[in-house]
Amino acid sequence: MADINGATIIARSLKAQGVEFIFGIGGFPVIPIPFAAQAEGIRYIGMRNEQAASYAAAAVGYLTGRPGACLVVSGPGVVHGIAGMANAWSNCWPMILLGGSCSTYQEGMGAFQEAPQLETAQVYAKYAARPDRLDRLPFYVEQAVRTSIQGRPGAVYLDLPDDIIAGSIDEDAVKWMPPCPDPQRPEADPADVSRAIDVLRKAERPLVIVGKGAAYSRAEAEVRSFIDATQIPFLPTPMGKGVMPDDHPLSVAPGRSFALQNADVVLTLGARLNWILHFGLPPRFHEDVKVIQVDIHGEEIGTNVPAEVGLVGDARAVIAQLSAAIRSEPITVAADTPWRKELGIKIEENQLAVQAMMDDDSAPMGYYRVLREIHDLSPRDSIICAEGANTMDISRTVLHNYEARHRLDAGTFGTMGVGLGQAIAAAVVHPDKKVVCVEGDSAFGFSGMEVETACRYRLPITFVVINNNGIGQGYEDLGDDPANSPPLAYTIDARYERVIEGFGGKGYCVRTPDELGSVLKEALADPMPNVVNVLIDPKASRKPQKFTWLTQ
Ligand code: ADP
Ligand code: MG
Fold it and tell me: Which of 62, 92, 243 maximizes ligand 1 atoms within 8 Å of its Cβ, making it the mutation to test the pocket?
């Protein structure tokens, strides 16, 4: 048999384990890997920023259920790639970071870009290893991929020495591994299912919280039939949006605070009671709330609030168990119950409070008017990426999702800078769909150069920059002393749209609702990526909130 090199063994093993996408930046010592990957039929996306590449890889894991890979050079490359690992760790998404490293025979000698890469990656990794033999490379790749998707998904790391990537052996000597199957879908203990049904049956004010764990487990059909059957009101978390369509009559998203404060039984489906859900504690939750928690990760049950019932298992499987358990004796929360009526009143009240801002046609616009236009004009199955402070928060209520796994944002880690990488990931995974990437001007700046990547691969992404000249609050001027420019301000009326013009995409700058409407129609129909820079009112802000965003 002929000789085969390390790069080809790595690429062939990744392909065999169902890794279809690699995002990276080539350089010593990983240069042979993207060439081998393309030869093996893996889609390689050459990016401009290693962090953005790592965020893209993690998003692929969430969107497809198989880890996306991120390929980076040794030393600084690995440090940058760990950004995405940390984001994946926090979001519970599978991804695989492939980091180049110095040759095994130079370890400890102060080699080029030598660093404690394995130790650094380990903190965020479910699995981290440094193969030192070519014949066992398939073993390591299989271990890494399987670990990333089994149980609670997460990030894994492979440290790839130069002499392993560039070395070669007789192909017959390679110990190939069969593909690891998709993860099992464990069911919850039937006794726990019965207890959960008892608790739900006695509830007067039940609420289902749909999290991104339910989205990840592809539980949408099961969740929809459970909620339609029981008529229990539901609240999606930011990325749980779309598992149930946002325009479903049982969505209490517009009455979120009221629903959380008053529910007596909360059924969480793949959603942690962390900061995003205010730890499940008063004053945001009722002090006597009973929590029924569905999670694949047994250790999660009882975090912050002792669970009344813990249902440890795969969300899709467990919801099907719940549905089966009430088939003979249904649970139904009728529309005329006080709970549903109170929720209805609260929702109407809150919707009225923002309607004026949504309908305000004056220029410059505020967030609500801009986002309403995007909502009105985007295709129903668009994938929405959103990041920024107000831009992301308000987008959560104004931009609707109708399908599962169609929203990507800063997530559990609150990572700014994920937007462009995640949008690129969504566009390569779903070439048939429109990706609308809504960015604050600050968020866009973290990896704005990725518009070049989008143009090079002709990904039809519309990037909308909601530009208020700064981080969080807006700025109207920078003052007279450039040396003491306001710390949170950026260039006033910056023309971000011009960046994409250098790479063949179209840029638009708009200030009025009319301009925005006609430009968006053109931009959304464009098969090339484009940037719509919306100069908004720097004084624009959110609807006044009863609680501050961060529970303290
Ligand atoms: P959100 O931000 O939407 O509230 P979180 O990231 O906090 O969601 O929680 C997602 C939860 O989903 C995690 O605790 C994770 O263990 C869990 N999870 C992941 N995969 C599955 C699955 N297949 N079935 C059930 N739960 C899952
Ligand atoms: Mg801003």
Answer: 92
